[in-house]
Protein backbone atom coordinates (compact mmCIF):
# COMPACT_ATOMS: atom_id res chain seq x y z
CA UNK A 1 0.00 0.00 0.00
CA UNK A 2 2.78 2.43 0.84
CA UNK A 3 4.95 3.46 -2.09
CA UNK A 4 7.83 5.74 -1.19
CA UNK A 5 7.86 7.31 -4.64
CA UNK A 6 5.60 9.89 -6.20
CA UNK A 7 5.19 9.43 -9.93
CA UNK A 8 2.93 11.05 -12.49
CA UNK A 9 0.88 7.84 -12.50
CA UNK A 10 0.54 7.70 -8.72
CA UNK A 11 -0.46 11.35 -8.53
CA UNK A 12 -3.04 10.83 -11.28
CA UNK A 13 -4.38 7.78 -9.47
CA UNK A 14 -4.65 9.53 -6.11
CA UNK A 15 -6.49 12.48 -7.63
CA UNK A 16 -8.85 10.16 -9.45
CA UNK A 17 -9.66 8.25 -6.29
CA UNK A 18 -10.34 11.49 -4.45
CA UNK A 19 -12.73 12.56 -7.19
CA UNK A 20 -14.27 9.10 -7.10
CA UNK A 21 -15.06 9.49 -3.41
CA UNK A 22 -16.87 12.72 -4.25
CA UNK A 23 -18.88 11.40 -7.17
CA UNK A 24 -19.42 7.67 -6.67
CA UNK A 25 -22.07 8.22 -4.02
CA UNK A 26 -24.26 9.78 -6.67
CA UNK A 27 -23.30 8.05 -9.88
CA UNK A 28 -23.98 4.62 -8.41
CA UNK A 29 -27.64 5.23 -9.10
CA UNK A 30 -26.87 5.15 -12.80
CA UNK A 31 -25.39 1.65 -12.51
CA UNK A 32 -28.30 -0.43 -11.20
CA UNK A 33 -27.97 -3.12 -13.94
CA UNK A 34 -24.33 -3.69 -12.96
CA UNK A 35 -25.26 -4.00 -9.29
CA UNK A 36 -27.95 -6.60 -9.97
CA UNK A 37 -25.63 -8.73 -12.02
CA UNK A 38 -22.74 -8.68 -9.54
CA UNK A 39 -24.60 -8.47 -6.25
CA UNK A 40 -23.17 -10.37 -3.29
CA UNK A 41 -21.53 -9.65 0.06
CA UNK A 42 -17.73 -9.89 -0.10
CA UNK A 43 -16.88 -8.40 3.31
CA UNK A 44 -18.52 -7.82 6.69
CA UNK A 45 -17.16 -5.41 9.29
CA UNK A 46 -19.42 -5.60 12.35
CA UNK A 47 -22.80 -4.40 11.03
CA UNK A 48 -21.37 -2.97 7.82
CA UNK A 49 -21.12 -4.85 4.53
CA UNK A 50 -19.34 -4.41 1.21
CA UNK A 51 -21.03 -5.71 -1.95
CA UNK A 52 -19.20 -7.11 -4.94
CA UNK A 53 -21.12 -4.62 -7.05
CA UNK A 54 -19.75 -1.74 -4.96
CA UNK A 55 -16.18 -2.87 -5.54
CA UNK A 56 -16.78 -3.38 -9.25
CA UNK A 57 -18.45 -0.01 -9.55
CA UNK A 58 -15.57 1.77 -7.78
CA UNK A 59 -13.13 0.04 -10.10
CA UNK A 60 -15.10 1.08 -13.21
CA UNK A 61 -15.34 4.63 -11.91
CA UNK A 62 -11.57 4.74 -11.47
CA UNK A 63 -11.08 3.64 -15.07
CA UNK A 64 -13.53 6.29 -16.22
CA UNK A 65 -11.82 9.05 -14.25
CA UNK A 66 -8.32 8.10 -15.45
CA UNK A 67 -9.55 7.33 -19.00
CA UNK A 68 -7.91 3.91 -18.89
CA UNK A 69 -9.02 0.60 -20.37
CA UNK A 70 -9.48 -2.56 -18.27
CA UNK A 71 -6.30 -4.63 -17.98
CA UNK A 72 -5.43 -8.07 -16.60
CA UNK A 73 -2.98 -6.28 -14.31
CA UNK A 74 -5.83 -4.37 -12.68
CA UNK A 75 -6.41 -7.10 -10.09
CA UNK A 76 -3.89 -5.38 -7.84
CA UNK A 77 -5.75 -2.10 -8.29
CA UNK A 78 -9.03 -3.80 -7.32
CA UNK A 79 -7.32 -5.15 -4.22
CA UNK A 80 -6.12 -1.67 -3.27
CA UNK A 81 -9.65 -0.32 -3.66
CA UNK A 82 -11.04 -3.24 -1.67
CA UNK A 83 -8.55 -2.63 1.16
CA UNK A 84 -9.58 1.02 1.30
CA UNK A 85 -13.25 0.02 1.51
CA UNK A 86 -12.58 -2.38 4.38
CA UNK A 87 -10.56 0.27 6.17
CA UNK A 88 -13.40 2.75 5.86
CA UNK A 89 -15.88 0.25 7.31
CA UNK A 90 -13.52 -0.47 10.22
CA UNK A 91 -13.25 3.25 10.93
CA UNK A 92 -17.04 3.48 10.87
CA UNK A 93 -17.46 0.49 13.18
CA UNK A 94 -14.98 1.88 15.69
CA UNK A 95 -16.67 5.28 15.50
CA UNK A 96 -19.89 3.66 16.69
CA UNK A 97 -18.05 2.07 19.62
CA UNK A 98 -16.30 5.36 20.49
CA UNK A 99 -19.46 7.47 19.97
CA UNK A 100 -17.85 9.58 17.26
CA UNK A 101 -20.54 11.52 15.38
CA UNK A 102 -20.96 14.53 13.12
CA UNK A 103 -23.63 17.21 13.43
CA UNK A 104 -26.58 16.81 11.09
CA UNK A 105 -26.21 20.42 9.97
CA UNK A 106 -22.70 19.56 8.73
CA UNK A 107 -24.06 16.51 6.92
CA UNK A 108 -26.69 18.68 5.24
CA UNK A 109 -24.09 21.24 4.17
CA UNK A 110 -21.79 18.57 2.74
CA UNK A 111 -24.67 16.84 0.96
CA UNK A 112 -25.75 20.13 -0.59
CA UNK A 113 -22.19 20.93 -1.62
CA UNK A 114 -21.76 17.59 -3.37
CA UNK A 115 -25.13 17.84 -5.08
CA UNK A 116 -24.31 21.39 -6.25
CA UNK A 117 -20.94 20.27 -7.57
CA UNK A 118 -22.37 17.32 -9.43
CA UNK A 119 -25.18 19.48 -10.85
CA UNK A 120 -22.57 21.93 -12.13
CA UNK A 121 -20.82 19.05 -13.93
CA UNK A 122 -23.94 17.82 -15.74
CA UNK A 123 -25.45 21.18 -16.62
CA UNK A 124 -27.71 22.08 -13.72
CA UNK A 125 -30.15 20.60 -11.23
CA UNK A 126 -32.82 19.85 -13.84
CA UNK A 127 -30.44 17.68 -15.86
CA UNK A 128 -29.30 15.97 -12.67
CA UNK A 129 -32.89 15.08 -11.83
CA UNK A 130 -33.52 13.89 -15.39
CA UNK A 131 -30.40 11.70 -15.35
CA UNK A 132 -31.42 9.85 -12.20
CA UNK A 133 -35.16 10.23 -12.75
CA UNK A 134 -35.41 11.48 -9.17
CA UNK A 135 -36.13 14.83 -7.56
CA UNK A 136 -33.37 16.55 -5.60
CA UNK A 137 -35.30 15.81 -2.45
CA UNK A 138 -35.38 12.09 -3.27
CA UNK A 139 -31.66 12.08 -4.08
CA UNK A 140 -30.81 13.81 -0.81
CA UNK A 141 -33.04 11.50 1.23
CA UNK A 142 -31.39 8.43 -0.29
CA UNK A 143 -27.82 9.71 -0.02
CA UNK A 144 -27.87 11.33 3.41
CA UNK A 145 -26.85 8.18 5.31
CA UNK A 146 -23.99 7.44 2.92
CA UNK A 147 -22.63 10.96 3.21
CA UNK A 148 -22.97 10.84 7.00
CA UNK A 149 -21.01 7.56 7.14
CA UNK A 150 -18.26 9.00 4.96
CA UNK A 151 -17.97 12.07 7.18
CA UNK A 152 -17.85 9.97 10.35
CA UNK A 153 -15.08 7.73 8.99
CA UNK A 154 -13.16 10.81 7.82
CA UNK A 155 -13.51 12.33 11.30
CA UNK A 156 -12.16 9.14 12.84
CA UNK A 157 -9.18 9.23 10.51
CA UNK A 158 -8.52 12.89 11.32
CA UNK A 159 -8.49 12.05 15.01
CA UNK A 160 -5.95 9.31 14.36
CA UNK A 161 -3.64 11.56 12.32
CA UNK A 162 -4.23 15.02 13.80
CA UNK A 163 -0.88 15.07 15.63
CA UNK A 164 1.16 13.70 12.71
CA UNK A 165 3.59 16.24 11.21
CA UNK A 166 6.68 16.16 9.02
CA UNK A 167 9.92 18.06 9.48
CA UNK A 168 11.94 19.59 6.61
CA UNK A 169 14.48 16.79 7.15
CA UNK A 170 11.78 14.15 6.63
CA UNK A 171 10.58 15.94 3.49
CA UNK A 172 14.11 15.92 2.04
CA UNK A 173 14.53 12.24 2.92
CA UNK A 174 11.23 11.45 1.23
CA UNK A 175 12.21 13.31 -1.93
CA UNK A 176 15.68 11.76 -2.06
CA UNK A 177 14.10 8.29 -2.09
CA UNK A 178 12.40 9.01 -5.41
CA UNK A 179 14.36 7.48 -8.32
CA UNK A 180 15.47 10.09 -10.85
CA UNK A 181 13.53 8.37 -13.64
CA UNK A 182 10.36 8.46 -11.53
CA UNK A 183 10.28 12.18 -10.81
CA UNK A 184 6.91 13.58 -11.87
CA UNK A 185 6.64 16.23 -14.57
CA UNK A 186 4.46 19.19 -13.60
CA UNK A 187 2.71 21.33 -16.20
CA UNK A 188 2.35 25.08 -15.77
CA UNK A 189 0.40 25.89 -12.61
CA UNK A 190 -1.04 29.05 -11.13
CA UNK A 191 -2.03 30.29 -7.70
CA UNK A 192 -5.13 32.46 -7.91
CA UNK A 193 -7.01 34.61 -5.45
CA UNK A 194 -10.26 36.49 -5.83
CA UNK A 195 -12.36 39.08 -4.05
CA UNK A 196 -16.08 38.69 -4.68
CA UNK A 197 -19.01 41.06 -4.35
CA UNK A 198 -22.50 39.67 -4.81
CA UNK A 199 -25.14 41.69 -6.64
CA UNK A 200 -27.35 43.18 -3.96
CA UNK A 201 -31.09 42.93 -4.20
CA UNK A 202 -32.86 46.29 -4.15
CA UNK A 203 -35.73 47.17 -1.84
CA UNK A 204 -38.06 47.22 -4.82
CA UNK A 205 -37.06 43.67 -5.84
CA UNK A 206 -37.53 42.40 -2.29
CA UNK A 207 -40.91 44.12 -2.07
CA UNK A 208 -42.01 42.49 -5.33
CA UNK A 209 -41.04 39.01 -4.11
CA UNK A 210 -42.77 39.54 -0.78
CA UNK A 211 -45.91 40.82 -2.50
CA UNK A 212 -46.04 37.75 -4.75
CA UNK A 213 -45.95 35.49 -1.69
CA UNK A 214 -48.58 37.55 0.12
CA UNK A 215 -50.88 37.02 -2.85
CA UNK A 216 -50.20 33.27 -2.80
CA UNK A 217 -50.86 33.20 0.94
CA UNK A 218 -54.22 34.85 0.41
CA UNK A 219 -55.06 32.24 -2.21
CA UNK A 220 -54.32 29.45 0.28
CA UNK A 221 -56.45 31.17 2.90
CA UNK A 222 -59.20 31.38 0.31
CA UNK A 223 -59.14 27.61 -0.12
CA UNK A 224 -56.53 26.78 -2.76
CA UNK A 225 -54.14 23.88 -2.11
CA UNK A 226 -50.70 24.87 -0.76
CA UNK A 227 -48.91 21.96 -2.45
CA UNK A 228 -50.47 22.73 -5.85
CA UNK A 229 -49.35 26.36 -5.65
CA UNK A 230 -45.87 25.26 -4.52
CA UNK A 231 -45.54 22.98 -7.53
CA UNK A 232 -46.51 25.83 -9.84
CA UNK A 233 -44.75 28.84 -8.31
CA UNK A 234 -41.96 27.75 -5.94
CA UNK A 235 -38.44 28.54 -7.14
CA UNK A 236 -36.86 25.75 -5.06
CA UNK A 237 -36.04 23.11 -7.71
CA UNK A 238 -35.35 20.51 -5.04
CA UNK A 239 -38.88 20.51 -3.62
CA UNK A 240 -41.28 22.23 -6.04
CA UNK A 241 -42.32 19.10 -7.92
CA UNK A 242 -43.08 17.43 -4.57
CA UNK A 243 -45.48 20.21 -3.65
CA UNK A 244 -42.77 22.04 -1.72
CA UNK A 245 -42.25 19.20 0.78
CA UNK A 246 -38.75 19.11 2.28
CA UNK A 247 -39.00 15.95 4.36
CA UNK A 248 -38.06 15.47 8.01
CA UNK A 249 -35.29 17.56 9.55
CA UNK A 250 -33.94 17.96 13.05
CA UNK A 251 -33.31 21.25 14.80
CA UNK A 252 -30.38 23.30 13.45
CA UNK A 253 -30.43 21.54 10.08
CA UNK A 254 -32.33 24.33 8.32
CA UNK A 255 -31.57 28.05 8.26
CA UNK A 256 -32.57 29.70 11.57
CA UNK A 257 -35.30 31.96 10.17
CA UNK A 258 -37.04 29.07 8.46
CA UNK A 259 -36.77 26.75 11.44
CA UNK A 260 -37.99 29.32 13.94
CA UNK A 261 -41.09 30.06 11.87
CA UNK A 262 -41.80 26.37 11.20
CA UNK A 263 -41.57 25.36 14.86
CA UNK A 264 -44.13 27.97 15.86
CA UNK A 265 -46.74 26.29 13.66
CA UNK A 266 -49.22 23.54 14.33
CA UNK A 267 -49.67 20.75 11.74
CA UNK A 268 -51.55 22.14 8.74
CA UNK A 269 -50.93 25.74 9.77
CA UNK A 270 -49.23 28.24 7.44
CA UNK A 271 -46.70 30.92 8.34
CA UNK A 272 -46.49 34.55 7.37
CA UNK A 273 -43.89 35.48 4.75
CA UNK A 274 -40.39 34.60 6.07
CA UNK A 275 -37.13 36.00 4.72
CA UNK A 276 -33.90 33.94 4.72
CA UNK A 277 -30.60 33.96 2.85
CA UNK A 278 -32.33 31.99 0.06
CA UNK A 279 -35.20 34.43 -0.49
CA UNK A 280 -38.76 34.58 0.83
CA UNK A 281 -40.78 31.60 2.06
CA UNK A 282 -44.31 30.58 2.86
CA UNK A 283 -44.09 27.60 5.22
CA UNK A 284 -46.65 24.96 6.10
CA UNK A 285 -45.99 22.45 8.88
CA UNK A 286 -46.98 18.93 7.83
CA UNK A 287 -46.01 16.79 10.83
CA UNK A 288 -43.90 16.59 13.98
CA UNK A 289 -42.29 13.27 14.90
CA UNK A 290 -40.22 13.34 18.08
CA UNK A 291 -37.37 15.80 17.56
CA UNK A 292 -37.96 15.99 13.80
CA UNK A 293 -40.41 18.01 11.75
CA UNK A 294 -41.62 17.91 8.15
CA UNK A 295 -42.62 21.05 6.24
CA UNK A 296 -43.44 22.23 2.77
CA UNK A 297 -42.70 25.70 1.46
CA UNK A 298 -43.03 28.08 -1.46
CA UNK A 299 -39.78 29.93 -2.21
CA UNK A 300 -39.65 33.15 -4.21
CA UNK A 301 -36.24 34.64 -4.96
CA UNK A 302 -35.98 38.39 -5.62
CA UNK A 303 -34.84 39.09 -9.16
CA UNK A 304 -31.32 40.53 -9.52
CA UNK A 305 -31.04 43.59 -11.77
CA UNK A 306 -28.08 44.41 -14.02
CA UNK A 307 -27.60 47.74 -12.27
CA UNK A 308 -26.70 45.86 -9.08
CA UNK A 309 -23.81 44.14 -10.86
CA UNK A 310 -22.52 47.54 -11.90
CA UNK A 311 -22.63 48.66 -8.28
CA UNK A 312 -20.64 45.58 -7.24
CA UNK A 313 -18.08 46.18 -9.99
CA UNK A 314 -17.71 49.82 -8.97
CA UNK A 315 -17.09 48.79 -5.36
CA UNK A 316 -14.46 46.27 -6.46
CA UNK A 317 -12.78 48.84 -8.70
CA UNK A 318 -12.24 50.98 -5.61
CA UNK A 319 -10.82 48.00 -3.72
CA UNK A 320 -8.50 47.24 -6.65
CA UNK A 321 -7.21 50.81 -6.60
CA UNK A 322 -6.29 50.45 -2.93
CA UNK A 323 -4.41 47.21 -3.65
CA UNK A 324 -2.59 48.54 -6.71
CA UNK A 325 -1.53 51.65 -4.80
CA UNK A 326 -0.19 49.45 -1.96
CA UNK A 327 -2.66 50.96 0.49
CA UNK A 328 -3.80 47.47 1.47
CA UNK A 329 -2.65 43.92 0.77
CA UNK A 330 -4.79 41.60 -1.31
CA UNK A 331 -5.19 39.22 1.63
CA UNK A 332 -6.38 41.97 3.97
CA UNK A 333 -8.71 43.36 1.31
CA UNK A 334 -10.21 39.88 0.81
CA UNK A 335 -10.87 39.56 4.54
CA UNK A 336 -12.47 43.01 4.77
CA UNK A 337 -14.41 43.24 1.52
CA UNK A 338 -15.02 39.81 -0.05
CA UNK A 339 -18.47 38.21 0.11
CA UNK A 340 -17.03 34.73 -0.51
CA UNK A 341 -17.03 33.09 2.92
CA UNK A 342 -15.02 30.12 1.64
CA UNK A 343 -11.96 32.21 0.72
CA UNK A 344 -12.07 35.53 2.57
CA UNK A 345 -10.27 34.15 5.62
CA UNK A 346 -7.70 32.40 3.42
CA UNK A 347 -6.32 35.54 1.83
CA UNK A 348 -8.85 35.15 -0.96
CA UNK A 349 -6.91 32.20 -2.37
CA UNK A 350 -8.78 29.59 -4.41
CA UNK A 351 -8.21 25.95 -3.47
CA UNK A 352 -8.83 22.69 -5.28
CA UNK A 353 -11.84 20.84 -3.90
CA UNK A 354 -10.15 17.54 -4.56
CA UNK A 355 -6.69 18.16 -3.11
CA UNK A 356 -6.97 21.31 -1.00
CA UNK A 357 -3.96 22.74 -2.86
CA UNK A 358 -3.82 26.38 -3.95
CA UNK A 359 -2.03 25.33 -7.15
CA UNK A 360 -4.14 24.75 -10.26
CA UNK A 361 -2.81 23.39 -13.58
CA UNK A 362 -3.43 25.93 -16.33
CA UNK A 363 -5.33 23.37 -18.39
CA UNK A 364 -7.80 22.98 -15.51
CA UNK A 365 -8.49 26.69 -15.01
CA UNK A 366 -12.06 27.71 -15.82
CA UNK A 367 -12.12 29.22 -19.35
CA UNK A 368 -13.72 32.46 -18.13
CA UNK A 369 -10.83 32.87 -15.67
CA UNK A 370 -8.15 31.67 -18.09
CA UNK A 371 -8.77 34.46 -20.58
CA UNK A 372 -8.57 37.05 -17.80
CA UNK A 373 -5.28 35.86 -16.31
CA UNK A 374 -3.63 34.78 -19.58
CA UNK A 375 -2.18 38.25 -20.20
CA UNK A 376 -1.54 39.08 -16.53
CA UNK A 377 1.86 39.13 -14.87
CA UNK A 378 2.56 37.59 -11.48
CA UNK A 379 1.37 40.04 -8.83
CA UNK A 380 -1.23 41.67 -11.08
CA UNK A 381 -4.83 42.23 -10.00
CA UNK A 382 -7.44 42.19 -12.74
CA UNK A 383 -10.15 44.74 -13.33
CA UNK A 384 -13.59 43.68 -12.03
CA UNK A 385 -15.37 41.04 -14.11
CA UNK A 386 -18.95 39.79 -13.81
CA UNK A 387 -19.64 36.08 -13.30
CA UNK A 388 -22.27 33.71 -11.98
CA UNK A 389 -21.58 31.63 -8.88
CA UNK A 390 -22.15 27.87 -8.74
CA UNK A 391 -25.42 28.42 -6.90
CA UNK A 392 -26.63 30.78 -9.63
CA UNK A 393 -26.01 34.15 -7.96
CA UNK A 394 -24.88 37.11 -10.04
CA UNK A 395 -21.61 38.54 -8.78
CA UNK A 396 -18.41 40.37 -9.69
CA UNK A 397 -14.82 39.69 -8.72
CA UNK A 398 -11.23 40.81 -9.13
CA UNK A 399 -8.58 38.14 -9.70
CA UNK A 400 -5.07 38.05 -8.27
CA UNK A 401 -2.30 36.08 -9.97
CA UNK A 402 -0.05 35.16 -7.05
CA UNK A 403 2.28 32.79 -8.89
CA UNK A 404 2.72 30.98 -12.19
CA UNK A 405 5.17 28.15 -12.73
CA UNK A 406 6.76 26.88 -15.91
CA UNK A 407 6.51 23.19 -16.87
CA UNK A 408 9.28 21.32 -15.06
CA UNK A 409 10.47 18.16 -13.38
CA UNK A 410 9.71 18.02 -9.65
CA UNK A 411 12.33 19.66 -7.46
CA UNK A 412 12.58 20.76 -3.83
CA UNK A 413 12.82 24.47 -4.59
CA UNK A 414 9.73 24.83 -6.76
CA UNK A 415 7.59 22.00 -5.40
CA UNK A 416 8.33 21.88 -1.68
CA UNK A 417 4.63 22.27 -0.80
CA UNK A 418 3.61 19.32 -2.98
CA UNK A 419 6.48 17.13 -1.80
CA UNK A 420 5.80 18.03 1.81
CA UNK A 421 2.13 17.15 1.36
CA UNK A 422 3.05 13.80 -0.18
CA UNK A 423 5.48 13.03 2.65
CA UNK A 424 2.85 13.97 5.22
CA UNK A 425 0.25 11.79 3.49
CA UNK A 426 2.61 8.81 3.59
CA UNK A 427 3.33 9.35 7.30
CA UNK A 428 -0.39 9.63 8.02
CA UNK A 429 -1.03 6.42 6.11
CA UNK A 430 1.46 4.67 8.35
CA UNK A 431 -0.26 6.11 11.45
CA UNK A 432 -3.61 4.79 10.22
CA UNK A 433 -2.10 1.37 9.51
CA UNK A 434 -0.70 1.28 13.02
CA UNK A 435 -4.14 2.15 14.37
CA UNK A 436 -5.61 -0.72 12.37
CA UNK A 437 -3.06 -3.13 13.78
CA UNK A 438 -4.05 -2.11 17.29
CA UNK A 439 -7.80 -2.24 16.66
CA UNK A 440 -8.22 -5.18 14.29
CA UNK A 441 -9.36 -7.48 17.10
CA UNK A 442 -11.96 -5.05 18.46
CA UNK A 443 -14.42 -5.62 15.59
CA UNK A 444 -15.72 -8.60 13.67
CA UNK A 445 -14.30 -8.84 10.13
CA UNK A 446 -15.12 -11.53 7.58
CA UNK A 447 -13.65 -11.56 4.08
CA UNK A 448 -15.02 -13.69 1.24
CA UNK A 449 -12.43 -16.42 0.41
CA UNK A 450 -12.51 -15.21 -3.20
CA UNK A 451 -10.67 -12.10 -2.02
CA UNK A 452 -8.06 -13.80 0.15
CA UNK A 453 -5.61 -12.91 -2.63
CA UNK A 454 -5.89 -9.24 -1.63
CA UNK A 455 -4.42 -10.05 1.80
CA UNK A 456 -6.61 -7.34 3.36
CA UNK A 457 -6.13 -8.50 6.94
CA UNK A 458 -2.36 -8.78 6.53
CA UNK A 459 -2.28 -4.97 6.31
CA UNK A 460 -3.26 -4.83 9.94
CA UNK A 461 -1.23 -7.71 11.33
UniProtKB/TrEMBL annotation:
Keyword Transmembrane recorded: no
Protein origin, superkingdom: Bacteria
PROSITE patterns, per the entry: PPIC_PPIASE_1 (PS01096), PPIC_PPIASE_2 (PS50198)
Keywords carried by this UniProt record: Isomerase, Rotamase, Signal
UniProt name for this protein: Peptidylprolyl isomerase
Molecular functions (GO terms): isomerase activity
InterPro entries xref list: OMP_Chaperone_SurA, PPIase_dom_sf, PPIase_PpiC, PPIase_PpiC_CS, Trigger_fact/SurA_dom_sf
Database matches in Pfam families: Rotamase, SurA_N_3
Matching PANTHER family: CHAPERONE SURA (PTHR47637)
Domain PpiC: 187-287, 290-385
